[in-house]
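During the reporting period the student researcher (J.K.) took over the structure-prediction task from the postdoctoral fellow and processed the backlog of single-chain submissions. One of the processed entries is reproduced below for the supervisory committee.
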Amino acid sequence: MDLSSKTTKEVGNLGESIACEYLRRHGFTIVDRNIARKTGELDVVAKKTANAGDEDTLHFVEVKTVLADEFPDPKNTKDEYDPSLNLHEAKVCKVARTGEWYVLEKKWGGDWQVDGCLVWLRRRDGMARVSYLPQIV
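J.K. obtained the following structure tokens:
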């Protein structure tokens, strides 16, 4: 599937869906998606139990997606756009503030954290590469 004609919003939505599938495959349960409040937006809210007997942890996952002609070469990142550049301090603080709201409203008593998920989508065929960044705050 060629992604060249997709809008930025469509690419972002596809990236979030791919991030959710990645998280599911790595033991997470998706609790919520696209929660918007005055303080900001939560792309994905997920939960994972570390070990039996441990408390659950809520993960507020900020997803950044970029279309690329080819996947970046980890050895040569000079010419490729890095979506982690959009995980700057101000953005992460907005996610954390919105996460605080979410925790209060849901009366969540366990731990929580802010994570990042970078998704590269190859323009010509829609193949994806995902990089999960735990605890970016």
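The committee noted the following: The mean pLDDT is 88.
J.K. will present the remaining backlog at the next meeting.
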